[in-house]
């Protein structure tokens, strides 16, 4: 007897493009149900979600775009800011017929997710932040260096190295530089041999980072997220964004669901996807979408400061994923 359930019969992800005012956006779509938007990090592409997309599509319509200028999407008209990326995501989801969505953001994508919730609070059901940017000033030396004059030529030269050489070089670096992410960093450098990708990487980096560290912070506006279910996940061995950023966030937002994965670096959704998937699915199943009220939003606009009142009241903090 065939015991296959309906949830097991998920169609294969489809690769599509859509022409919008911001240009042509390439995206992967899979599944059916409430919209779940997956937003990659700086210099990345939608392929970063390949280990999660099939399982998440069992309960949601999963949409994973290449951000403007990244992957197979067109370059934007010069604006690589968080606000411009948030507008592009709003345009994409509306064009695809989704008025509301939950948003998962990795690294830069976490900052974009936070910016989207600030600019378009009436659109966002939930926030899921993975190794998120925007929670503190510190960031890796490599990312700070990428914003300096002449970085384009250096990154181009590194990208032209054979992939095997880059991988061996990354693996040989001190742990405080690459941690457990040597393979992911090597793949990123190889992708940046493409001039379009490199332009997007450098110009996006300069919009949020300078030689001192992260120049854009979500701290002042995070208090506006009261009532939005929030999950924050990170790796304990992240050398790109210090885990203390997320621990501090968790301490200030006690109602947020938190997941710290022992031994994982900056890409837990790639390197430890099985350990991340369960808490994500549990969070999506157990929380209710945020109910937006303009009156409530205006009240919060007038008094929001710091982290006060952030997070979801729907669920207690998730235990550490060991």
TrEMBL record:
<dbReference type="InterPro" id="IPR000073">
    <property type="entry name" value="AB_hydrolase_1"/>
</dbReference>
<dbReference type="Pfam" id="PF00561">
    <property type="entry name" value="Abhydrolase_1"/>
</dbReference>
<protein>
    <submittedName>
        <fullName>Alpha/beta hydrolase</fullName>
    </submittedName>
</protein>
<dbReference type="InterPro" id="IPR029058">
    <property type="entry name" value="AB_hydrolase_fold"/>
</dbReference>
<feature type="domain" description="AB hydrolase-1">
    <location>
        <begin position="34"/>
        <end position="272"/>
    </location>
</feature>
<keyword id="KW-0378">Hydrolase</keyword>
<dbReference type="InterPro" id="IPR050228">
    <property type="entry name" value="Carboxylesterase_BioH"/>
</dbReference>
<dbReference type="GO" id="GO:0016787">
    <property type="term" value="F:hydrolase activity"/>
</dbReference>
């Amino acid at each position: 007897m065939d015991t296959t359930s309906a949830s097991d019969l998920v169609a294969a992800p489809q690769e599509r493009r859509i022409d919008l005012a911001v240009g042509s956006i390439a995206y992967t779509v899979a599944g059916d149900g409430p919209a779940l938007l997956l937003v990659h990090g700086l210099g990345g592409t939608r392929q970063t979600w390949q280990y999660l997309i099939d399982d998440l599509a069992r309960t949601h319509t999963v949409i994973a775009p290449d951000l403007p200028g990244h992957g197979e999407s067109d370059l934007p008209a010069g604006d690589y800011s968080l606000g411009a990326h948030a507008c592009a995501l709003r345009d994409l989801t509306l064009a695809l017929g989704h008025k509301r969505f939950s948003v998962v953001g990795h690294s830069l994508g976490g900052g974009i997710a936070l910016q989207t919730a600030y600019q378009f609070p009436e659109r966002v059901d939930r926030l899921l932040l993975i190794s998120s940017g925007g929670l503190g000033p510190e960031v890796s030396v490599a990312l700070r260096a990428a914003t300096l004059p002449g970085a384009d030529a250096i990154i181009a030269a590194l990208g032209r190295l054979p992939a095997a050489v880059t991988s061996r070089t990354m693996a040989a670096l001190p742990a405080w530089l690459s941690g457990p992410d040597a393979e992911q960093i090597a793949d990123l450098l190889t992708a940046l041999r493409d001039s379009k990708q490199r332009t997007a990487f450098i110009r996006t980096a300069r919009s949020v980072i300078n030689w001192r560290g992260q120049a854009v912070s979500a701290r002042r506006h995070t208090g506006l997220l009261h009532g939005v279910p929030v999950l924050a996940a990170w790796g304990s061995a992240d050398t790109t964004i210090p885990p203390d950023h997320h621990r501090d966030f968790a301490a200030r937002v006690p109602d947020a669901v938190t997941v710290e994965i022992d031994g994982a670096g900056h890409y837990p959704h790639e390197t430890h996807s099985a350990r991340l998937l369960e808490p994500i699915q549990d969070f999506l199943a157990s929380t209710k979408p945020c109910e937006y009220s303009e009156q409530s939003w205006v009240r919060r606009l007038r008094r929001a400061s710091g982290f006060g009142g952030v997070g979801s009241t729907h669920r207690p903090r998730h235990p550490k994923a060991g």
